[in-house]
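pasting for ref. prot 1 ->
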Amino acid sequence: MPNPIIHAAAALAFLLCAVTAHAAATTTYAGAWFEIDAPVEFTVRPSLPSASADGFDSAFFTSPDGAVEFYIHAPQWGGDATDIAIDPATESLSDEKVVTDGPVTRRWFTISANDGSYSRSYLTTTDTRGPTERTVGIRYRSIEDLQANNAAYTAFRDSLRQFAD
C-alpha cells in the first residue's frame, strides 16, 4: 500500500523543483541610491546621472526582443524623471489615477504612442515623510507583450531597494 506521506513529500519536492526551474535568473543593478534586480538577459541603459553621488538615478532595462522595457527612477530624495517625459509630437497621456493615503501619494499613468506602436505605464510613489520619490514602469508594444512579461516586471518592481544617506 502506498505511503501518503511519501507521496506528499515527493509531490512537494517536484513542485519546488518546477518552481525553481522556472524562476527567472536576475542580476542586481546598482544605481546611485538604489539597487534593483532585472532579468539577466535584459540590456541595461543608465539614464539620469545622480546630482548627489556617483552613479545614476534612473535606468532602462530592455528585453532581448525589444518587446518590453522596464524603467526605474529612484533618486536620493526626489527629482523629476525627465527621461520619461511625454513627447507631445508623438505621444499622449492615455490614463491617469492619483491616490493619496496620508503622507504617501501614488500616481499611476500610461503614455501611449499616437500611432499605437507602444504604451508606457508607470507608478510614481511620493512620501512626504522623507521626502522620497520613485518611479517604476514598463514600456510594451502590445497587451500580449505586457501580459507575457508581467511576472518578470512584478519581480523587478518588487525588488527595489532604495537608500538614503
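and prot 2 ->
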Amino acid sequence: MVAISRRDKARPDAKTQRKICKDAGQDAAHRKRPAPHPGPRCASCNRMVQNPRADARHEAYVIKTYELLPGEYQAILKEQNGKCKICPAPLKYTKRRYAVDHDHAKEKILGMRLSIRGLLCKRHNNLLRDVRDSVETLQSAIDYLLDPPAHNIIERENE
C-alpha cells in the first residue's frame, strides 16, 4: 500500500490533469473523479461536506433573524407538509428555502417571534409583500379574476 502525502493530494494528477480528492484514500475509482471546483474534494464529497454546513448556516440565520428556537423552522415545514402554505407544489429543482412569513404590524406589538405566520415560497411571500398584507386588496383581486370587467364589454359587442 502506498501512502499519499497531503501535498500530492492537492496537486493535479500528472496523467489526467485532475486534482485528487482528499477523501479518496486508496480507492482507485474514487481517485479518478474530477474535482471541478476550488478545493481538495470531488463534487460528490464536496456536496456531502457543504450540505450540512449550509443547513447549519440557515438554522443560525433563522434563529437570529426570526427568534425561532432550534428545529422550529423544520417543525413548521413539517406541519405544512413540506410545502408553501399558499401553493400546493413543494420546492423542487432549487436550492432556495421557504421564506419565513411574518406580520409586520404584529411584529411591532408582539415581537418577531409571535408575528410569524408560516413558510411561503418566494413568489407568494412577494405577493403578500406587494399587497402589504391587505385582505381587501386580495379580495379585490379574487373578485377581478371571477368577474373580469372586459368580459361585460366584449359580450355586449358580440350581441
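The chain has two domains: 1-66, 84-158.
Helices lie at 6-10, 28-31, 43-66, 72-79, 104-110, 122-130, 135-146, 149-158.
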